[in-house]
Fold:
Amino acid sequence: MFTWESTVLLIPAFLLVLYSYSLRTRQLKAERKYTQEQGNMHMRMVEALALTIEAKDQTTHDHLQRVKIFCIEVGKEVKLSELEVQALSVASLLHDIGKLAVPEYIISKPGKLSVEEFEKVKIHPAVGAEILERVGFPYPVAPIVRAHHEKWDGSGYPRGLKAEAIPLHARLFSVVDVWDALRSDRPYRAGWDEKKVRSYLSERAGKDLDPNLVEIFLKTVQDLRD
Structure:
């Protein structure tokens, strides 16, 4: 039976447990805040690097941001984890980092590339993946970058992967990137209207693009508008 004397003796132990719990709670909050701040700083660095890539390529900051947003939304639709969605966000901004190894005259050439020039362009997914592997991201960025020019029918590069052998994240990115690239104005052409781009994506489904992801993406675009 507990007496008042024994209860009094338990008070210091209870206060010690309460203090330890409070201290641990504060530590966890500080760690979460630090992790969030580090994540925000990390993303700002990624976006700064993306701006460097844009300066060489003929893309725009708006294009990359739209692709990132669409990738996040479609990623949620196909039930990707939070880390996988984060990987898509980073890859959407840095997918063309390998173009830093491609000669400037090829990147900025307004007309059709020669066979030799195109072969030089084709190295950029592998080079980009090698660069990003050295960063040590806590999520799979490099595989997305390496495979973002692979095609559903196996006619892509650099490895000629086919269908589901292509990482899901890369297949998803490809659909989004094609959509926004065709919708955007470029120096050499005006952006296509939505109906024309929808028709093009449906036509390329099962050829260049994953047909299931094309269907999901087009529905997501409609849902976002509604």
In short: The chain has a mean pLDDT of 82. The chain is about 70% helix and 0% strand. Residues 4-56 form the longest helix (53 residues). The two ends are 67 Å apart (CA to CA).
